[in-house]
Amino acid sequence: MNLYPRRRRSRFVFTTLCLGLLFWFTNNIHAQPAPAETQDALAQNFLHPPDSAKPRVWWHWVNGNITQQGITADLEWMSRSGIGGMQMFDGDLGVPVFVDKPLLWMTPDWKAAWKHAAAEADRLHLEMSMAASGGWSESGGPWVKPGQAMKKYVWSETEVHGPQMYSGRLTAPPRNNGKFQDLVPVPDGTIPSVSGLPGARPQPPAPPSPELPDFYADTAVIAYRVPDQEIAMTDLHPKVTTSAGDLDASALMDGHFKDIFVLPLPPNRNEGWIEYAFAQRFRTSSVLIAAASTQKFGPRALPDGEVQASDDGQTWRTLVELPGPLESRSVNLSLRTYTYPETEAKFYRVLLKPPAGPRRPGLPHEIRLTELRFYSTPRVNDWEDKASFGTLYEDASTPTRDVPQNEVIRKTDVVDLTSKMSADGTLHWQVPEGRWRIVRFGYSLEGEVNHPATREATGFEVDKLSRADVTDYLNHYIDMISSMAGPYFGKSFRYFVMDSWEAGEENWTEAMFREFSERRGYDMRPYLPVLTGRIVGSAKESDAFLRDFRRTIADMLADNYYGNAAAMMKARGVGLYAEAMGTGLPTTGDGLMNKGQVTIPMGEFWTPPPDHSDNHYSDVKETSSAAHIYGKPLAATESFTTGPFVTPWGESPLYLKPLADENFARGINRIVIHTSVHQPFTDKEHRPGLTLGPWGQSYTRNITWATQAKAWNTYLARCSYLLQQGSYAADVAYFYGDGAPVTVPFWKPIRPALPAHYGYDWVNDDVLLHGATVRDGSLRLASGMQYRVLVIPDDVHSMSLALIMRIHSLVEAGMVLLSPRLEHASGLEGGPDADAKFQKIADELWGSGTEHALGRGRVYTGMEIESVLGKEGVLPDFSYDAPHNVGPEIPYAIPNGASPDDLVYLHRTTNDADIYFVATQKKHAFDVNVSFRVQGRVPELWHPDTGDLDAAMYSEQDGRTIVPIHMDPVGSVFVVFRRGAAPPAPLFAEAQPLAVLPEDWSVKFPMADGSPVQTHDTHLASWTESADPNVRYFSGSATYAQDVTVQPEWIRSGSHILLDLGVVREMAEVFVNGQQAGGVLWKPPFRTDITAALHAGTNHIEIRVTNLWPNRMIGDLQPGVAHTQTFTDYRPFRPDSPLMPSGLIGPVDLLSARTTAH
To answer: Which of 152, 387, 462, 1019 has the fewest CB atoms within 10 Å, i.e. is most exposed?
Structure first.
């Protein structure tokens, strides 16, 4: 075969460092490690990662489609593919029945299958875990009694006038299940099964679901004196008109939330209005707008629009914009009280548009409200969210305006009447003179159930704020699992798992009064009117009480739920993974504190469409920060989760790699892949198999690249192994506030900006108050983490008195603080003198100017973090020059990195090494000089994709080590600094073009239907360009073959022949003369050393190329296809869906490289 030379590629050979020294260094080709380098444990475990470093997978059992032979096949594939364990969930996703006999939750056959899985996990050395309930959220089951379920407080009001002796039965508060008062809950609905699937039988018809029982218990009765100015809107009998004409609007003013008012919208318009006209001017300062939620998951936000006022019904002025700024929007509640400056008007109007966001198909074009009320006396701004019926991004964004004292309730005018009410609700009370409102408080249920569980596993979500109820729930559940597991409990079965929170809000528990007084130091009863929106004492005092109320709920969630669960499991010999509490402020909690209570904190990140980035940064950083500040060695993530926005079965390892790398750089060191659905069948006819619909990777033994998956898993394991070593190196601790709910901000930029060249963590008040000290000018936590600077972001304006006192003492001991001057105490702890004490401490802390010394420490204000670190003499941990020798972008549609920087990094330290993970999110290759804050240690380049360990060229200057590095497109490398490193391995010099192989190849396509292998002689191009439908729609592995003549002089001593495949879609394996050369190639450059398998003369080269499933699935939908080759319960494609480029596209080159010594 004739070979012809190719023009030399323009690639660099030398890099000039700032010292003027000239070094050789690697370029794409990695030397094998010198023998001495492989003798130490760190290198050996990097090459061959231990089980503790291997990725885990979620393993979903869906709708009873379970077989023991399928279990064995699943787990054996996991074991041989380099997966370290599975986390099992049993759920109902509406999947039809495909197996002969579905196995239902906790039946004898189901238990036998579960124990078989535990036994097989033991045999295969896999770690087995299981969700903490049926479904995946959160912790509930049929054994949870109504009185143990999640609770909300409710109330009723009765107005009386004194003086008189009042004897009467108080109206009972609402006892229905739901989020707020008598608001009707949104039905969970069912997930419809896909019809028309071959071999499918519908799920057997379920009996009608019994209505969930309700529950009610009284908690307190109070009365307060009503301000003289208060007038009920309904007493003024406003005339109501709407954009849809005269409608019955009584539901909007009846004081109930169960009755729905429907405002139809015109077909051609997306806006309507409701107008209240009063006979006389009506003074108002707040409005309640309550929307009827229309979907369980998705936006529950209030409508968009405006609240307006007018004196003549013609000219309108805006009082409120709906739903308000992002930071002040309710996350998960569809009602809210808005306050505004006192206004008098005869006309009030609300303009309404449907809330933004996705809507369930088929919803009518209308606005659905349950209440629309204007108030004459002040209310607490957005008190519903502040009382934890919903959550806010920032409660400080919705402060309550100061109001005159004669319009608020004095604390001395709140009377506790609890002892005067009998069990049947009858109250006997001598009413003092004046107008009084009696409020009967109790609690009813949220009505939340675990989901998406099968009917047999579904029941109330347990009360997460009650230690007793959580303990009872877990004792029952753990006993069930341990009795099933037998000898495997604590052996192969090692963990329970809590997914991200999908259980709604909870704001009451039976022991709330006791918990509040013990945690906050005062009695909450005088402030109970605030829980109905009224202002007690002052606006500031009422907001502060609600802060303490939410903070108490958050503390109980951390202690009584997450901490209690982890302790109970530890006592039983197992642990707890938990996405505590999940993304997007799903409930009132402290994200860091929750994650810090569990054995292995988890976050999550998702797979975005091509050229987009994932937006789960904050949850991932919160997870790693929690691991660091609470002394947890592992930080895990639910990883690569997908939705309908990406191509099912369409993500290769190359597509996923930038997502893994950016989250490794955020501190994650255990990957848990979402998901590997259990496949009950073991034949080839049921591929790719069962799924979770659009959710997850469908990463199973039925993917086209199942036999090549070990290469990807090993990459993840090598990275995880090194990132599990030692401790995280950070210089900066960011405090994220002591309110509740509180999480690492995801909705806004951080000021001062997060440092690009220093490691940092987020910290909370818990770790600062408990065990924090100062050592050698650094803040040191009880976990051992140390930071040179504590940063309080610019938007934090308050904190508790206890915390500012603690920070004052830490600064006096030598800590450096960068912070704005804080304004006031955040709650009512500390008593009436708390603010005065707070201001005195603040004066001492901040002094005047931008820099202030206090004791041995310093306080900076209004500066950037890099400036402060520079003043403190802290050099950047990691920096780099502008990239050079920048190559072209690779022709792959993959996600963008969330960071705009050329490099992302993470630094960990051990007693013997500094380990830096360095990665790029860029789609082009480049060379870069990287400067590390390390001296006196020798750098080595450890490549997690190949396992190669290379010597590195370097120089030292001013206490730093400078290393030139070549970065492949979306490439990554570990720079490992150690003392007394082994002699350097040989380095490859520049790879020189040797020859281009002709584009004529013989290609064999195995047919999935069992027909003979088809052989095609073809040029290099995507299979999708072929006129043959068997090639155009092929999915699987095809083998290219060609004979190549090698000249004797090509393989002289010291020379290496490299085969470069150019563009490959998606993975390749190279065989030369029947011998595999290198491993699986799954990322650019698709290049391998074939020297050892070559000989002079004719050599037979085969390249096995594997693509993904979509093309074949689309091919099965083409007209006239009589025999389909794929099987699945999910049908995301159409006949005209775009095909994915596939195959060996090339060009295929031979390169020559010679080794060189230092």
So the answer is: 1019
Q: Which residue has the higher pLDDT, 484 or 849?
A: 484
> For 747-775, what is each residue's pLDDT tens digit?
899 999 999 999 999 999 999 999 999 99
Distance between CA atoms of residues 249 and 274, nearest Å: 9
The CATH fold assigned to 52-146+455-498+559-728 is TIM Barrel (3.20.20)
With tokens 């005339």, the residue in question is: 239
Q: How many CA atoms lie within 13 A of 371 on its CB side?
A: 24
DSSP character at residue 464: T
Task: Please state, in angstroms and rounded to a whole number, the distance separating the CA atoms of residues 400 and 411.
Answer: 17
> In the chain, where are the structural domains located?
52-146+455-498+559-728, 233-405, 732-871, 993-1156
CA distance 74 to 57: 11
Q: Is the peptide bond before 138 cis (omega within 30 degrees of 0)?
A: yes
Which CATH number among 3.20.110.10, 2.60.120.260, 3.30.1950.10, 3.20.20.70 corresponds to the domain 233-405?
2.60.120.260
Tokens at residue 1089, please?
């050393």
pLDDT digits (tens, 9 = 90+) for 1103-1134: 999 999 999 999 999 999 989 999 999 999 99
> With contact defined as beta carbons under 8 Å apart, do 408 and 536 qualify?
yes
Residue identified by tokens 């049921």 is 686
Cα 767 from Cα 600, distance rounded (Å): 18
pLDDT, residue 211, reads 84
Q: Are 635 and 667 in contact, with CB atoms under 8 Å apart?
A: yes
- How would you classify the pairing of strands 304-310 and 317-322? antiparallel
CA nearest 553: which of 138, 150, 180? 150
Q: Please return the burial class of 401, using the count of CB atoms within 10 Å of its CB with bins 0-12, 13-18 and 19+.
A: middle
Burial (CB < 10 A; 0-12, 13-18, 19+), residue 254, is middle
Strands 366-375 and 261-264: antiparallel
CATH: 3.30.450.20, 3.30.450.40, 1.10.8.60, 2.60.120.260. Which one for 993-1156?
Answer: 2.60.120.260
Strand partners, 168: 427
User: Whole-model pTM?
Assistant: 0.95
Residue 397 to residue 154: CA distance in whole angstroms? 26
State pLDDT tens for residues 781-832: 999 999 999 999 999 999 999 999 999 999 999 999 999 999 999 999 999 9
Residue matched to tokens 């530890």: 570
Category of 193 on φ-ψ map: left (φ > 0), alpha (ψ -120 to 50) or beta? beta
Please tell me if the domain spanning 233-405 has the same topology as the one spanning 993-1156.
yes
Q: How far is CA 865 from CA 754, 775, 868, 874, in A?
A: 8, 20, 5, 11
Look at residues 627, 577, 579, 594 and name the one whose alpha carbon lies nearest to residue 906: 627
* 242 neighbors 349 (Cβ within 8 angstroms): no
Looking at residue 571, its pLDDT comes to 99
Please choose, from the candidates 1043, 1023, 1047, the residue with its C-alpha nearest in 3D space to the C-alpha of residue 1035: 1023
SS3 1042: strand
User: CA–CA distance from 332 to each of 180, 186, 390, 393, 587 (Å)?
Assistant: 12, 13, 5, 11, 9
Q: How far is CA 52 from CA 55, 636, 696, 753, 884, in A?
A: 8, 12, 23, 35, 38
Greatest CA separation found in the chain? Answer: 115
- Say if CB 978 and CB 1132 are below 8 A apart: no
Across 875-1013, the runs of DSSP E, i.e. the strands, are 878-880, 904-909, 913-919, 926-932, 938-942, 949-951, 955-957, 960-967, 972-978, 987-988, 992-996, 1001-1005
626 burial (CB, 10 Å; 0-12 / 13-18 / 19+) is buried
Q: Tell me, letter by letter, the H, E, C secondary structure of 786-813.
A: EECEEECCCCCCEECHHHHHHHHHHHHC
